[in-house]
């Protein structure tokens, strides 16, 4: 595609993803008070952290509900924007290869939600770790805005971390990334997994970082294996496709 067509395609995909987020946010608005907010507060109360959620302004409850609804919209609309990522990366695939979009969404959405679920599972341990630093008789004054940012940052970080290996596979199916390049960079990938976990987990404890980084490494290994299998399939079906991998002095199959 020319550059302008790429930009137009990007605009179209972003618009559709935004519509999905808005629709999810509308649902989140109506579910906020009865379901979402109690679920978000539950991890803080699991270990009796002696904390209370506080609003720091008159319109604080409305602001928090609006922001929280948008976060819910991002998570709830994951099938829509995950597909839009795939559709933007792979516009040049054949009709047969585009069928893999079903597999991409089928794998990507559960992995994203699995990351969110794992983050929610470790939240009580995170609050337990933080509570150990509170002195006896002290009360943690926790503003609702900072608490919501803390929770949602952790949930989305885990979700995106679990989605990245699927994007590697999508790039491979689009012919933009070879499995041998992934394997050659495994040391860098392992380092980046721990760096990502260290930066995007909002707590200083090593346990949360390791819980995020290790599944990312395992998923990267699985993604590399899938890429290898796909490269072998392509080489078998199109033996002339990969001449660029030959040395200058090597003979081609011709």
UniProtKB/TrEMBL annotation:
Pfam families: TatC. Its main location: membrane. Keywords: Cell membrane, Membrane, Protein transport, Translocation, Transmembrane, Transmembrane helix, Transport. It is found in: Cell membrane; Membrane. The chain crosses the membrane at residues 14-32, 70-89, 101-123, 150-171, 183-200, 206-229. It is a multi-pass membrane protein. InterPro entries: TatC. The keyword Nucleus does not apply. PANTHER family: SEC-INDEPENDENT PROTEIN TRANSLOCASE PROTEIN TATC, SEC-INDEPENDENT PROTEIN TRANSLOCASE PROTEIN TATC, CHLOROPLASTIC-RELATED. Part of the twin-arginine translocation (Tat) system that transports large folded proteins containing a characteristic twin-arginine motif in their signal peptide across membranes. Together with TatB, TatC is part of a receptor directly interacting with Tat signal peptides. The Tat system comprises two distinct complexes: a TatABC complex, containing multiple copies of TatA, TatB and TatC subunits, and a separate TatA complex, containing only TatA subunits. Substrates initially bind to the TatABC complex, which probably triggers association of the separate TatA complex to form the active translocon. HAMAP family: TatC. Belongs to the TatC family. NCBIfam families: tatC. This is Sec-independent protein translocase protein TatC.
